[in-house]
Structure prediction request, 519 residues.
Amino acid sequence: MSAQPDIVLARNPARHTAPTVLQVTQLNKFYGSLQALRDVSFDVCRGEVVALLGASGCGKSTLLNIAAGLDAFDTGTLEIEGLAAAQFKQWHKLAYMFQEDRLLPWRTVHENVEFGLEAQSLSRRERRERAERALRTVGLAEFAQSWPHQLSGGMRSRVALARSLVVEPSILLMDEPFSKLDPHTRSQMHQELLRIQAESGATVLFVTHDVEEAVVLANRIVLLEPRPGRVKEIVEVPLARPRLPTDKDTAELTRQLRLKVTP
Amino acid sequence: MSQTKTHTVWRLLGQRFVLAAIFIALWAFAASRMPAFVLPGPLKVWEAMQALVVKPTFLHDIGITMYRVVMGFLLATVIGTPLGLALGSNRTLAGFFEPLLSVTNTVSSAIWAVFAIIWFGISNATTIFVVFMTAMPLILTNVWQGSQNVDKQHVDLARSFRMSRAQILRKIYLPTILPYFFSGARLAFGFGWRVSLVAETLGSSDGIGYRLRQAADLVQTDQVFVWTLTLVLLMLALEGGLLKPMERRLFRWKPI
Prediction:
């Protein structure tokens, strides 16, 4: 029995047993003479949900862009599935979800989801079937033929999620994906994301400045400090799921972390 | 819902009918007080129209004018679109060539027609050239403007899916530019029609513009009216039968 018997501890199933999917070692990044990232190191194991948490200006998004292969870095190494980023070829197994939904207004919901597959050479039929499946997963099958402007913010966010899921990613990278939603829709999307993640076993690395979001979603939190961006601490979140922001343990961990984020 | 819609359609038709009636009445009244070679009455024009429509040259003249306008317009599209894309994607290039565009925009179509006659003589090329010189800057400017409005976020999205440059051009740039291109093309087509007549009065031996000048030279005022009427009807048919439905289909994704 521990000293705090009412805190329910869950084991992080991904850690220690699963292979490392993403490994960042001693990464440095400069914009001109300005250092954006200094000696950043962390890793993400298969099936894990990891949060990059920090105030603005600590290079969270830059770090995510580097991990997505969309941005270059100066020194250090980035390994994806055991391969150096330069050797890694299966970029289509990596999905990137932006802060905004970025739906293309001239495409229907279904066509927007298919967009995720159009860089790959798939048959028209397979594209259609996979897009339908992804839309069913996020519960929007009946809106397939709607236009984006006809949807609410939460629905648009689901379409964007479906567009990321349609590539059946082994790694899902997310840049504050739900930050523009109202709190209710947002926590719905959190549950949705965790359900889908549990079903697909995908690895999720996401950026947030919201401590509560990090605690609710992540197995581990990489806490970053600003100017230049660097790792302050890596925190395990041993709480059982589902976690509600109103739960005692979740609220307590959120409070403790909040003290660390804003000095 | 659909009942109020039919209602609006009927009211609109009624309004149009009344407007046409007022116009014809005023026309008939004015014509009755003037000699026919100055202002022929509606009845006289109607008779002249019936006589003209059965002539074998009627369809030929319309066809040849149409051909010249469409050719000039297509050339303007084929050349103006890539140029507009190039200027839109390169700021330095755009800054360098911008004055040239202002110059072409200030040169009147009549001047192009004079040049065209010097260069091409009495031929199809004269009219095609004038239509081209009028339409091309319009299409170029609109495509250019459109390519400046491409959302960087959409390009980044395509990049995150590892799309090639050609794919980004086709899937992001073209759909963004299309509405701009379309409004430019409409403008260009409308202007092209008008200037084609100017060119034809000067440098051709058939076509609607040529017939208009012929009628004017022979003081056949009723013929001038008939050709004008034909033109207006053609433009209305093109607008309602082709351009409007096309626009509705292409841009059905837009709100409202």
In short: The mean pLDDT of chain A is 87.
